[in-house]
């Protein structure tokens, strides 16, 4: 499905917005998304003969009229010539935040986020033939990882297996994305999955009972502005968003939200992480990951039950006071 406009967009690395603007196209709100070379969650694999194979990816997110998750393969050869291959959704579903492992003349496409209606119960595994550009499903057996994305996959055992670690898991049994804390091995000769670890870590996810986003990010911004002596707008987006917390939101609890009333020490933050807090409790790391829809708590080891319960109850009580709403605490098991 190569065409000169798309190949021109590849050469100039244009996004959907820039491409549409360059050709004076209609607004995407009216006619649907414009094609984009610029994407998130795409893989790029360099072949020994100089071909660069780009697979899938997404442009922007649901709020943007050009949001789209792609199921194409863009191949640029060593001379700079580009071909674009498209596939039926049943053959190659819209795929993003996957990994790509080159094994001889095949690329194993591992994992996917995609649209909710595409997701199934187990990890997506596809194979791209780099000679014919045919894509096939790789049939597997054994205990496969759940639907996973943003993971790592490493070719091991002299190319006989792929090791999957990290990433995020989607599933209808959880109200939000779940971190993958275990390691999984896929044998390429047998197609058999093996779960290599089953870490006995206690994990909780905290979400508002009403399904609405939490207010922690904007409360944090408000707290910082007050500390700087910055004046507050009574009519802006933030004020409107925070209005249901009452006239006097519990900003005092933000400082101790991730400091339970048990002996602990704070672990320094890691520079490239965002809204992640760690404590050391009895020699075990307790990690809090704050999101807009949920707060994840992971006990990275074994602690006494009463210590875990005290940690859980401390966060639950503070969150309900801050949010001025009921909070559900879900125990996560994979």
Walkthrough of the structure:
By secondary structure, the protein is of the alpha+beta class. It folds into two domains: 4-195, Kelch-type beta propeller (Neuraminidase), CATH 2.120.10.80; 202-331, TATA-Binding Protein (2-Layer Sandwich), CATH 3.30.310. The protein has six helices and 24 strands. It has helices at 4-12, 16-22, 28-31, 216-227, 237-242, 305-323, and strands at 43-46, 52-55, 58-59, 68-69, 72-76, 82-86, 99-103, 106-110, 125-129, 135-137, 141-142, 147-149, 152-156, 161-165, 168-170, 178-179, 184-187, 192-195, 202-208, 265-267, 276-281, 284-290, 295-299, 327-331. It has a six-stranded antiparallel sheet with strand order 20-21-22-23-19-24, covered by helices on one side. A five-stranded mixed sheet has the order 11-18-17-14-13, with no helix packed on it. Strands 1-2-5-6 form a four-stranded antiparallel sheet, with helices on one face. β17 (184-187) and β18 (192-195) form a beta hairpin. It is globular.
Which labels suit this protein?
Neuraminidase, 334 residues, TATA-Binding Protein, 5-stranded mixed sheet, 6 helices, 6-stranded antiparallel sheet
Quote the average pLDDT: 94
Number of strands: 24
Q: Structural class of the secondary elements?
A: alpha+beta
What's the main sheet like?
Answer: 6 strands, antiparallel
Distance between the termini: 41 Å
The number of distinct structural domains comes to 2
The count of helical stretches stands at: 6
């Amino acid at each position: 499905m190569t065409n000169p406009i798309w190949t021109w967009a590849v050469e100039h690395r244009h996004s959907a917005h820039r491409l549409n603007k360059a050709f004076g196209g209609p607004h995407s709100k009216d006619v649907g998304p414009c094609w984009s070379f610029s994407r998130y969650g795409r893989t790029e694999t360099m072949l020994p003969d100089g071909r660069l194979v780009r697979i899938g990816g997404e442009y922007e997110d649901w709020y943007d009229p050009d949001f789209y998750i792609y199921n194409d393969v863009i191949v640029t050869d060593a001379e700079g010539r580009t071909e674009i291959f498209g596939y039926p959704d049943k053959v190659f579903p819209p795929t993003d935040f996957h990994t790509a492992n080159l094994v001889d003349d095949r690329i194993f496409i591992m994992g996917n986020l995609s649209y909710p209606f595409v997701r199934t119960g187990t990890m997506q595994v596809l194979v791209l033939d780099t000679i014919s550009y045919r894509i096939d499903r790789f049939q597997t057996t054994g205990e496969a990882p759940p639907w996973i994305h943003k993971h790592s996959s490493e070719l091991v055992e002299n190319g006989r297996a792929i090791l999957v670690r990290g990433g995020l898991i989607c599933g209808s049994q959880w109200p939000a994305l779940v971190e993958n804390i275990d390691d999984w091995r896929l044998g390429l000769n047998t197609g058999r999955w093996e779960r290599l670890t089953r870490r006995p870590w206690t994990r909780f996810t905290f979400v508002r009972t009403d399904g609405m986003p939490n207010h922690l990010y904007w409360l944090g911004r408000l707290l910082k502005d007050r500390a700087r002596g910055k004046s507050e707008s009574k009519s802006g987006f933030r004020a409107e968003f925070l209005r249901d917390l009452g006239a006097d939101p519990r900003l005092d609890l933000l400082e101790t939200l991730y400091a339970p009333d048990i002996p602990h020490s704070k672990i320094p933050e890691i520079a490239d992480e965002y809204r992640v807090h760690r404590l050391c409790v009895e020699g075990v790391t307790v990690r809090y990951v704050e999101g807009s829809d949920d707060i994840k708590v992971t006990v990275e080891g074994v602690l006494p039950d009463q210590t875990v319960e005290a940690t859980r109850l401390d966060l639950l009580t503070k969150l309900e006071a801050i949010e001025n709403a009921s909070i559900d605490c879900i125990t996560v098991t994979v």
